[in-house]
């Protein structure tokens, strides 16, 4: 398959996904294979919560929209154009690439899947037990668009075998196992990461509302969700709590509410000082990883010193949001809308796949 053919296949997938919206799902006559896939995909969206209680329809729709927006001809061309030299030198150096996927948020492993196929390699995929249905369905759609992909996509039930490289995503604990088990293979091993926000007290209500999206999207389960906030000495959280009140309905979801009640009780029994608005607790803590329904905060005195601290802690941080206070930070509300060229852990997957022998 040529690079242009592969791009066109994923553009077709983007058009297919574009039809599905929480409030306005519309079947379009010019989309390929709707007769085979449209109705079944709509059913799968609503069945996803029975497969994983965190995969509510609105969260799955959000993930679908994110990929529909990403898989356009313009975006794919912009992404791949950065690797013209690598692609020209690769000469279809085909590899079997094992993908061990996470399942914390819907389709979290799709970027690795896309990268393997775009670089002319074969994907041997071990899905998470928490996300076993969405990616296989989209793989079937891609194969319907171009049958040549059938030989390049394999979902593995048991032990992974006969692979040349591996991309594995897991916790800090599982990463140690991955590093040992795959020590003789070229690999990308991803560990736990969290995201942070830096405030200075001058944020608008709209910016703080957008920060709420960074906190509550996917119930805070993603590595790009903000779980830590840095604020200046003397900062008042009143404006923050007022702005995020629009997300109060999250407490009506049983799994989130159970986590809120449990984690709040643990904090209180430990005599920790908390700020609480009835659906989110915030606690002063130096850690980046807060439990579901809680965000940690820490005071800073000097933004330059904080920049140095964040650079030193970079291996714990996925992304940082701020109003241009921190170098390379992203705007509020955008953590869950990464571009194709925004790589997890800042490790360039395409370069890895094209240059690994």
What does this structure look like?
With 357 residues, the chain is α/β, with parallel strands linked by helices. It is built from 13 helices and eleven strands. A six-stranded mixed sheet has the order 8-9-10-7-6-11, with helices on both faces. Strands 3-2-1-4-5 form a five-stranded parallel sheet, sandwiched between helices. Strand 6, helix 9 and strand 7 (226-232) form a beta-alpha-beta unit. 34% of the residues are buried.
Order of helices and strands: HHHHHEHEHEEHEEHEHHEEEHEH
Q: What topology, given as strand order, has the largest sheet? A: 8-9-10-7-6-11
Largest sheet: 6 strands, mixed
Secondary structure class reads: alpha/beta
Properties at a glance:
357 residues, alpha/beta, 5-stranded parallel sheet, 13 helices, globular
Quick summary:
The protein is an alpha/beta fold. 41% of the residues lie in helices and 15% in strands. The strands form two sheets. A six-stranded mixed β-sheet has the order 8-9-10-7-6-11, with helices on both faces. The protein has a five-stranded parallel β-sheet with strand order 3-2-1-4-5, sandwiched between helices.
């Amino acid at each position: 398959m040529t690079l242009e053919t592969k791009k066109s296949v994923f553009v077709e997938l983007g058009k297919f996904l574009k039809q599905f919206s929480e409030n306005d799902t519309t079947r379009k006559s010019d989309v390929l294979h709707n007769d085979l896939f449209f109705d079944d995909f709509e059913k799968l969206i609503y069945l996803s919560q029975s497969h994983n209680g965190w995969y509510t329809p609105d969260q799955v729709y959000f993930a679908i929209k994110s990929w529909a927006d990403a898989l356009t001809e313009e975006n794919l061309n912009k992404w791949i154009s950065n690797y013209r030299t690598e692609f020209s030198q690769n000469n279809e150096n085909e590899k079997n690439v094992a993908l061990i996927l996470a399942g914390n948020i819907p389709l979290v492993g799709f970027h690795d899947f896309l990268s393997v196929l775009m670089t002319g390699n074969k994907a041997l995929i071990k899905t998470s037990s928490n996300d076993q249905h969405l990616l296989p369905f989209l793989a079937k759609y891609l194969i319907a668009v171009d049958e040549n992909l059938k030989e390049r996509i394999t979902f593995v039930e048991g032990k992974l075998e006969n692979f040349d490289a591996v991309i594995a995503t897991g916790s800090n604990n599982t990463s140690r196992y991955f590093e040992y088990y795959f020590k003789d293979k070229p690999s990308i091993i991803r560990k736990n990461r969290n995201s942070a926000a830096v405030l200075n007290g001058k944020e608008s209500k709209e910016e703080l509302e957008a920060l709420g999206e960074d906190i509550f999207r996917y119930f805070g389960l993603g590595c790009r969700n903000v779980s830590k906030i840095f604020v200046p000495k003397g900062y008042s959280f009143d404006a923050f709590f007022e702005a995020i009140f629009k997300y109060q309905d999250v407490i009506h979801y049983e799994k989130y509410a159970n986590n809120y009640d449990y984690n709040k009780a643990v904090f209180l029994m430990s005599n920790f000082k908390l700020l609480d608005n009835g659906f989110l607790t915030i606690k002063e803590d130096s850690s980046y990883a807060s439990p579901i329904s809680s965000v940690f905060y820490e005071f800073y005195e000097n933004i330059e010193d904080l920049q140095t601290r964040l650079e030193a802690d970079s291996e714990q941080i996925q992304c940082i949001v701020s109003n241009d206070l921190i170098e390379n930070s992203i705007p509020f509300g955008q953590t869950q809308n990464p571009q194709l060229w925004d790589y997890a852990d800042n490790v360039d997957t395409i370069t890895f796949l094209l240059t690994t022998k």
